[in-house]
Amino acid sequence: MSVVEKGRLSLSFWMVIPLLLVMAAGFNFPLLVMFGRSLIGPDGFTLSSYATLIDTTVYLKVLGNTFKIAVISTVFCVVLGYPLAYWLRSLSPKWRMIGLAAIVIPFWISILVRSYAWIVIMGNAGLINRSLAHLGWINAPLQLLYNELGVIIGTINVLLPFLVLPLFASMIKIDNQILNAAQTLGARPGTIFWRIFFPLTVPALAAGAILVFILSLGFYITPAILGGGRVPMIANMLDLLINQMPSWELASSISVVLLAFTLLLFAFYLRLANGEKRA
Asked: Which residues of the chain have pLDDT under 70?
C-alpha cells in the first residue's frame, strides 16, 4: 500500500469517527442502559423482572398476541405481495414504472395520516359499511375497527411495500433465457414457474417476509389508532410500563427479550440476503 493510499485511509477513518461516536451515544449506549436496567434493581443484581415476565400471564398474552398479529400480517403480505411483484415484472417498462410509483408514493405519507384514513374507510359510518348498507347486504355496521382485524389490515397496508420492492428486484434479475430454454424443451408454463422461477425467488421472498415480521413486532401507531386500545401489543405495553406505571426494570426486560428475538431473525435475514447475492 502506497503512502498516498495510507493517507487516504487514515483521512477516511478520522472522518468516520464522529459518526461512530454519534451512533455509540445515540444508539448503543441506550441499549446498554436498557440491558443494565433489566438486570439491576434497587438492591443490586437481580433477575426478578424476567421472573415477573414469565410468571405474569398478562405479559405473556401480550407477547403472544403481538407474535400472532405479526405472523398473520406477514402471511397476508406474502400472499398479496408475490402476485403483485410477479405482475409488475410482466409489465412493459413504462407501466412498470407507474406501478412502482404507486407502491412507493405511500412512503411519502405519514403512517399517522394513513392510519386515520382507514378509520374513514372502515368505520361504522365509513365507506365500506355505507356502501354495503346502501346495497342492502348488511343491516348493522360491520366491526372492522378497534379489533385485531383493523390492526392487521393497517399493518399490511404499511408493510406490503417492504416485501414487494425487494422481491420485485429479485424477480427482474432472473434471466428470461432460462425460462425460454425450459419452454423450448417442452416444459409447460406451470412447470416453468414452480420448478424454475419460484425456487429462484424463494430467498428474496423469505428475506422479505422476515423483514416484514421484524417490523410488525414493533408497531405502535397503527395498533393504538386502529386497535383503539383494545388490541394490546408489545410497543403499547412498553408505553404503559414506562409512562404510566412506571416500571423501568420490567419494561427493559421485555425490550431485551424482543431485541434478542429480533436480532436472531435479522441474522437469518442477512444470511438469506447474502445467499441470494451469491446465487
From this structure: 1-11, 272-279
